[in-house]
Amino acid sequence: MRTIAYARRPILKPPFARAGPYNRRGVFVALGGSVSSGRANHERTDGQLFAAAAAAAARGDDLDDSLAQLLGLAAEYLGATQGATYILDPDRDELELAVTYGVADEISAQAGSVTSASESHDPIAGVVRARVPLEVDDAGHVAILRSASTALLLPLVVRRDGIEVSLGVMALGFAGPLPSREALVGAEPLADLAAIAVERALALSLGSERAEWFDRLAHTDPLTGLANRRTIDRVLELEVARAGRQGVALSVAIFEVDRLTEIQLAGGNPAGDNAMRQVAQVLSESVRLVDVIGRYGPEQFILVAPGTDGEVVAGRLVKGVASLPGFDGRPISVSAGIASFPLDGRTSDELKALAETAVKTAQDAGGGRVVALAQPAD
Asked: Hey, what CATH topology would domain 229-372 get?
C-alpha cells in the first residue's frame, strides 16, 4: 500500500454515528460478499476489508488516522493508484485537504483547498453540492488527481433531522479506466464510514466546546468577566493554606464602587452595569501576574495578592479607577479595605471580615482611598 500523507490542517477530535449497508441509491450492498470483475485483486476478503473499515470509523481516536485508513482501504478495494479526502468547512465555505494517498507533495500543496465551495466549478465542490457520486473520465479536471487517468468522487454525506448534509469528498484516481459500475457502487459504504468519522469528530468537538463554555460560566461573573465569588473563595482558601505552609505573607483587599447607587439613579441599571464593567477592566489590567481579582458582591471586587505588596497594588488599582471619565459629571471611584496574613488573620474568613470593615471605613472617610486596619490584639 502506498504511503498516506497528512495535510496540514487543524485536527478535529473524534466521534460516532451509524450507517447502514445501503448505497445512495437505496440498494443493499453485501459487505462480506464478492464483487464482480472490474475490481482490483487484493489479499483480504471483502469481509476482512470492510471489517477493517468499520473499525477505523468506530474505534479511531484521531480523525486524520481514521480518514487515512479508510482512504487506503478504498484504494485497495478498487485498485486506485491515488486518492484524497477533503473536509468541508461551512463557516469559511472551503474544502480542506485532510489526507492523500499516492499524490505528489507538490500537487498536494497546490490543491490543498477548494475555496468558495458553494460556487466553485471544481468537480470536487460540485459533488459536495450535489451529494451524489461522480465518475470522471478525464482526471485532469480534478486538481488533486490530475496525474491520474480517471477518477471517482464520492460525497461524504450524513442525515441530520431528515436532511442530507455534505461533510466532504473522498476522491480516488486510477491509472486506467474506471472499475465496473458494480465495484464503484460497492465502494460507497467506505465513503459513508468516512462521513461517520467526520460527523463523530464534529460532535465530540462541539461537545468539548460546550463543556468548556459551561465550565467558564461556572467560574466567571457574567457581567464583568472576572472570577465569581465561589471561584475567588476557593482561590483564597488555597492561597491561605499555601502561605501558612511556606510562612509567607498574603494580602486580601476588598474594593467597593463609591456612590454606585447615584450612578444607577441618574442613568438607570445600564449605567450601573457599565460602571461595574469599566471598573472591572481597570482592575484586571492593573494587577500583577501573581494576583487574582474577582467580583465579590453587587458593588464589590476582591483581590488576592501573594507577598507583602498588597497595599501598594491596591493603591495602584484605586488610582487607576479614579482616572475613568465618569458618568454625567459623576466621577467613578472605589474604596479599598485590606487585610494581611498572618498579622490580621489566619483564615480566609478572618481576612475577608477585616477587609470588609476596612472598606466601610474608607467609604465613611470619603471614598477613593485604601484603608488597612490592624486586627485588635487579644
From this structure: Alpha-Beta Plaits (3.30.70)
